[in-house]
Structure prediction request, 1104 residues.
Amino acid sequence: MIIVLLLVLPLLASLILFTGKLGKHSREFALIVSLLEFGVALVAGYAFTFANHKILNLSLNLKQLLDIDIIINIDAVSLLMIMLTTLLVPVIIASNNNRKVRNHNFFGLILLMQMALIGVFTASEMILFYIFWELAMIPIFLITAIWGGQNRLKISVKFLIYTVVGSFAMLIAILYLYTLTPAPHSFSFDAFYHLKLPYSVQVPVFLAFFLAFAIKIPLFPFHSWQAETYNVSPVQGSMLLAGIMLKMGLYGIIRFILPICPDVVAGGSLIFLPLILFGVIYGAIIAIRQPKLKKMIAFVSLSHVGIIALGLLSNNHYGIEGAILQMFSHGVNVVGFFLCYQIIVIRTGTDIISDLGGIASAAPKFATLFLVVVLANVALPLTNSFVGEFLILLGLFQSNIYIAVIAGLTIILGAVYMLRMFQQVMYGPQTAVTTNFRDLTVREMLLFVPIIISIFLVGVYPSFVLQMLQTAVK
Amino acid sequence: MELISILLLVFPFLGFLIIGLLQKHMNRNVSGILGSAVICINLVLSAILFWHVSSSNQTVQTQLFDWVKFADISIPFAITVDRLSALMLMIINGVGLLIHIYSIGYMKEDEGVNRFFAYLNLFVFFMLTLVLSSNYLMLFIGWEGVGLCSYLLIGFWYKDHANNDAAKKAFIMNRIGDLGFLLGIFMLYSTFHSLNISEVLAKASVMPSGDMTLFFITLCLFIGATGKSAQIPLFTWLPDAMAGPTPVSALIHAATMVTAGIYLIARSSVLFVLSPVTMNIILVVGAATALIGGLVAIFQNDIKKILAYSTVSQLGFLFMALGLGSFSGAMFHLTTHAFFKALLFLAAGSVIHALSGEQDIRNMGGLRKKIPFTFALFIIGTIAISGIPPFAGFFSKEVILTAAFEHGLGMGIIATVISLMTTIYMFRLLFVVFFKPESKALKANHHVHESPKVMTYPMAVLAILSMIAGFVQLPKLFSETQGFDTFLLPVFAKATGLAAVSEHGLDVQTEWMIFLVPLLVIAALIVVSYKRFVNAKELTEASGFSKVLANKFYFDEIYDFCIVKPLGFISDIFREFVDQTIINGIVNGVGRGTLFVGKRLRRLQTGNVGFYLVIMVFSIIAILFFNIIL
Prediction:
């Protein structure tokens, strides 16, 4: 029943928060619940690794009631994504120290979103999956539309419409596949996996799914909502989006595109590999001279998730496994990056890179932590993303040398944009806005603890995750 | 022995952690002593290992843990200590210790001294990882790790953006090479299904010479080496790297890190011997780099830049040796070069220290009386690097020159010319700094002082090493036993066997020629440069071709124009035009189009029942009509 607890706990907590009865204590309450949730996830992880796997499956037959089966279960990929979600949500909640916003609803929405995300990562039945998928959209839309910056309504509506278009394509594909399942029709993943579609049918199904996921991830050229939405959303919203929500799209590729359209993937995913590859380089090049820090993170993210998508579609098990690991690492790193961003913006009031400088001499602790996050983003060996990128590039190299070589250019470009940014923000003489830069408080240091631990744990000893994943990759 | 090999990595890392984490609370004198003590222990441990592998001819193998292991891929962390790595251990820890001690004096006044020693210990950790690794991936981890330390230490004084630019440049240029290395690793894995070095070499040794796969693998590894070891086209970062504190230039950018590329190729000797094309590429690139580095060094005016270009040139010379297949010759010169180049950098640091930060040699002169001890050490270093017997440089250069002449007369002459250039730039430096009449700027500076003992003693040790290290292997003319060759024989035996070069050897006359002619030329060059540089009033402004040389062949400008600027331009185009105008425009256009169509379609819903009925009737007629026809 752990799995039910994982879903119900944040749901109940968010309902309690929506009542507004908790007032000032909303944040503490939300934080405690999210930490509890992380504890439950750890138990699930323990159960998965060492104990009886059965407790991680749940199947309720509600045929009489709703005419659907509820099937939830956790495999290695789900578990890793649940770990990511439950690890990051406490950080995201604790990082908010803006008292002006209506706290209880804000935190309630975050927890509601957590519940929906866990639902997405555990559902084993299409209708359920689709419900959670759409449900996850609502809190982030509201967070951006209510607490966002300039033009928040226009931009969040654009974001909403964009993703709904993708979801709609996916819905059509799901319904179509449903009709193909042997009678009595079923929405369960297993039934879909057993379809063995001919190539001509796989292509449109691939296209429909790919559109939905490419918008969500986002992949070039469906990314134009991303930079705007990150930019306008409050930092916690950006963290949720970049850290966890993007992984829904990648997760979708793993769950649907790889098993249902294997021949399309084996054939090189139509024209999409070069397109994604272009996006990877494109994002990296834009990041080099992006004047605003937050938008820069968006383009860096575009480049990084593009690599992950390439790994997933590489049709090579090193690439796929590296990509799954990298989904976790990217979530951790990008949230770490946003934490640094938030600390800078709160203290200086600006995120224009050229206005900053000299922070390292004023705040050495912050400089060290930021450096670790930057190096993790640059995929330096012994940090988490090196393992993932190494395996992805190795996988790509074995499936298509040219793509691997071009994708490898991001190793250089990553150093270019990251070091340039870090130098301008942290080094050099202090500027008007950074003269009184305060070093990190204990509370802020604590926020970095889970990030730093994950960076080095996965970087130095990735085997434990990789071995866990290998059963799922098959 | 296994435990010792692990401890070698543990100690410097602990040193880094302790100094790094307690930076704020640690007394500034303690960090230097702690950092040096750690390396001192390491040196003792290395000596034990060195003795073990050289007396028993065994290698020490230590398994750590599986870094990546799933399905059919397995990349363990494991340590191998053979004679080659034992030699590197001695160099890294020996020179490292001396430079640590020197830094206690050199960095005494700096506020970031604790950070400095933390980075320095971290560097030693990664450098040892690099040479101890038993597989290419862990080697790569050390490889990138030393790059990181180099980045942090070049930009150590980060308040000045010039230093940060130099650091960034070093990191990025290294990354370009690293991509090559990484692709090489992928190819190695795809070809041999293993990254274990000895396994790869064993499997490769049965492949035919000139195999295409081996060619690409070695080419990629060499690209990696050109980044780290500052060869054309990726060498321009090294002179800029002099922005870091001088002990860093001595340790990282002269004695150890920049030789990692040579180590990599020597380590993979079997692969390279089997790809003659790559060997020739290495030979040409090495010779070109050595020439350009030497030429540019003659026309520089910054004491550290001269030494930096000298390093570029010497590294090129080392690559020539590798390209000629003289792996042990390259390692020999690498060793002696580590001693005298570190000595020269430290002595230069002592000069800079004495002059309170002055680096322009035009503002020096006459220093031999003011800082006599540093002067004596500098002379020893200069003699050693110029290849004048009986100091170390002579013996190691001799091995490489012999190899070059064995390859062919032309190559021999080129190598000789390259090695003679050393004399010109080094004696120019020596004469201008120490013999020339005092410059105006120097006369105004009354604080010229000799360095403290904590700085001079380590230099003295290096000076002794620079004097005697050569005697481990006398030229073939004088001695039958080739000590250094024999020592490394087990490492390179397979490669030398595969090379299958006809061992025709040189006749005695030629050997005497190689021995004597350079010495005469050196003597002549010293006299000429004494006349030219000591008596000239001021160094003249460069013009014509020498201006090209003074400006380093405009490499930086060319790269800036061909790569940096266009990249920035493309970035702006992508951001402003492609992303904003085209992609966002299309998306918004679709949105607007939808709204537009929606508005038009809305007019159909007029609410007029009659209109609906008319449409309905016409539709039914149309359907019937079609049904009849079809």
Notes: DSSP finds 21 helices and two strands in chain A. The mean pLDDT of chain A is 87.
